[in-house]
Amino acid sequence: MRRRDFLAMTAALAAPGAARAQPAWAPSRPVTLIVPLGPGSTADMLARTMAEIWGRQLGQPVVVENRPAAGGIVATEALKNAPPDGHTIGLASQGTLVFNPFLHAGLRYDPRRDFTLVAPFAVVTNALVVPRSSPHRTVADLVAAAKANPGQINYSSGGNGTSHHISMALFAQISGTQLVHVPYRTAPAGILAVIAGEVQAGCYNIPTVLSQIRAGELRALAVTSAGRSEFLPEVPSLQEAGLAGYELTTWMGLALPAGAPQPVVARLAAETDRALADDAVWARLRQQGFERIPRMDPPTFARFLEADLAKWQPIFAAAGTRAD
Fold this sequence. Notes:
Helix 2 (42-58) links the parallel strand 1 and strand 2. By secondary structure, the chain is of the alpha/beta class. The protein has helices spanning 3-13, 42-58, 73-81, 94-103, 139-148, 163-175, 187-196, 206-214, 262-276, 279-288, 298-319, and strands spanning 31-35, 62-66, 88-93, 115-131, 153-157, 179-183, 201-205, 218-223, 249-257. Strands 1, 2, 3, 4, 5, 6, 7, 8 and 9 form a nine-stranded mixed β-sheet that branches.
């Protein structure tokens, strides 16, 4: 997501809220946290960190259930159809609630109608990576090769609708190139495909490729944020590298099925706020490559989603990007 728009949006939407009274609801059995991506993905890393914290706060285990099929659609449909009693919660993302509705004409969930948004967690920046054996050492090299060989440069992703997919689709749109998308079932599988040279490039969340970049298994050509990432300060942004106007970071947060009772929403929102206000928690998340997002109450988070849908609709319309 474009950081200027992101900061302006959250500043405009956030409003001072009254202090919450101690919520009365508590789970009576283990809570299932549905995650739309596979083990080892950025979403999985974040979910497992939050699940551990919520388990202590709520007095019940929070069990992560990965459902990585169909770009998060299977997981998001499962969340939609779950009882809204707080015992099934879901990791929502820009991919599942903003990108998928523009990619899939027959989507069987509505991001506005079918969910109760509770709180955002964090944002992540992506890194454009190539194998260490790649001849491409700069973004200009990759663009030149793609223009000289239309349809011959391929890239992997963790599935249709993921930020990995959309990052490269936006790259192709702005650079005027024709790239071939090769979706894998999970982000780790797509990353391994880049390392092995099965594909020529990929654009993955920094938390999932940072160690491979530092180890020299992958070469980072650029990052998707407007400026350089604190995690890869030596790597230029795509804007710096010549793709004017390119900027994308992606957010993740907590959602419940529509119709969740207010005490359930209030308790989960309060516990999430408490966790994310803890400097020790943020030190742990930052070590994994996550960036802070302004804290929002549930109504503000819902308005944020509306604004993000409105922002991305013309971008998808102009690109003509659909699920493969």
